[in-house]
Amino acid sequence: MTTVTAPAASATRHHRNQEPPLNAAPADQIRLLDLQALDVRLTQLAHKRKSLPEHAEIQTLEGDLAQHRDLLVAAQTEESDTAREQTKAEQDVDQVRQRAARDQQRLDSGAGLSPKDLENLQHEIASLAKRQGDLEDVVLEIMERREAAQERVRELTGRVASVQAKIDDATARRDAAIAGIDAEVATVTKEREVVAASVPADLLKLYDKLRTQQGGVGAARLYQRRCEGCQLELNITELNEVRSAAADAVVRCENCRRILVRTPESGL
Predict the structure, then answer these.
(1) Does the keyword Coiled coil apply (predicted)?
(2) pTM reported for the whole predicted model
(3) Could you report the per-residue pLDDT of 51-83, keeping only the tens digit for each?
């Protein structure tokens, strides 16, 4: 444990710590604990905001939504392709039907046709009938595929809407939680500004520096001979140094280097 004001330790320890002695009224030092508590709360709120379960929920749902949308686009493309395919097949059927109708009219009239022509015409009409039947089977097969694609589109459209609704709900819950957290952050920040303004500038500067270096904790209470920053108990030599330090001396934990704030519960 080091005191930054004790003359007996100043030469060796000041050289080692490379920091000038610092004094502050005991009340100002205790006020650092209030400031530290507010900073810890701000850190907790930042972590809470970042770690809201809705963040992961939304991320998972958005992945599902992207997958469903890709499948929907594929199904819509298939439905569109089969629609064009059906139109083309129906046109082929209609062309064969019209040609068969013309041949039948010629056959029925018989005008200017030789027996050989009549035989050929009858053969062509029979071939066209078979061709029409084959094409109509193709149309039916395409219609079945199109109906399946349409059903798939309807199903996936419903899934997309369902997942989107879940995302909207999770987003609303997330935004409400964030609004609550941000409101508390604003309140705590204002409280911190008031407390920080009451701390001497040099003490505040040291505290902020240490807080940055020591994972968010710049000042710790000495409680029952234990530093609450690193949770290590002071040995007898360190305790004697703290006991001998002036009340306004800003002392530091020998182990974690945080500002060590003395209180009636310090066990000195």
Answers:
(1) yes
(2) 0.73
(3) 999 999 999 999 999 999 999 999 999 999 999
